[in-house]
Amino acid sequence: MTGQTDTSTTRERSPEHDIGSDGFRSDAAATYAVLAECWREPTEQLTEAIEAGELAPVVGDLGSADRHRLRTEYTRLFIGPAGPPCPPYESVYRDGEDPDALGPVKGPATMAVVRWYREFGVQPAAAYSDLPDHIATELEFAAYLAEAGFDDQLDQFFEEHLAAWTDEFLRQVETETREPFYASLATTTREVIHQ
């Protein structure tokens, strides 16, 4: 996991899987974990990775990255001040009564995701204050399932959750963003989810 989720159980993995330089045995798990980190509030580590070209396979070669600009755009897109144009929460896209309007946070979709986490003995880390149906948290859980070799459950989680709501969210991001980083991230995330 990328540090935002605590696992209370450790699952055995077969020894024939090698651990890559990123610490993951599974390429899919590493991809989901990187995407999860990219969807969190930008850190100095993220901007350094962008500038070093380490994220070029994810967002293309963006050259330099300004953490302040990325954080400003993150806040505008995903936090507010007056209601964000692209809330990064599954429940907002799935639990509304009006199909043309965004729904509430902490709806039934949020509770369904929490049940998945509990079933596998994981929960958001105490230091992580966002909701469990945030796109980054769901991608991090997908990384956990991929790394643990729970392929059938991963497919089911994608079908029931990530693939069920992210298209609308990612379209919103592509439409609303003023930063190439988020436009590229949305495109790559869609490609990965629909592989």
From TrEMBL:
Residues 1-25 are annotated as: Disordered. Keywords: Chaperone. Transmembrane segments: none annotated. InterPro entries: DMSO/NO3_reduct_chaperone (IPR020945), TorD-like_sf (IPR036411), TorD/DmsD_chaperones (IPR050289). Residues 9-20 have a biased composition (Basic and acidic residues). This is Cytoplasmic chaperone TorD family protein. The lineage of its organism: Archaea, Methanobacteriati, Methanobacteriota, Stenosarchaea group, Halobacteria. It comes from Haloarcula marismortui (strain ATCC 43049 / DSM 3752 / JCM 8966 / VKM B-1809).
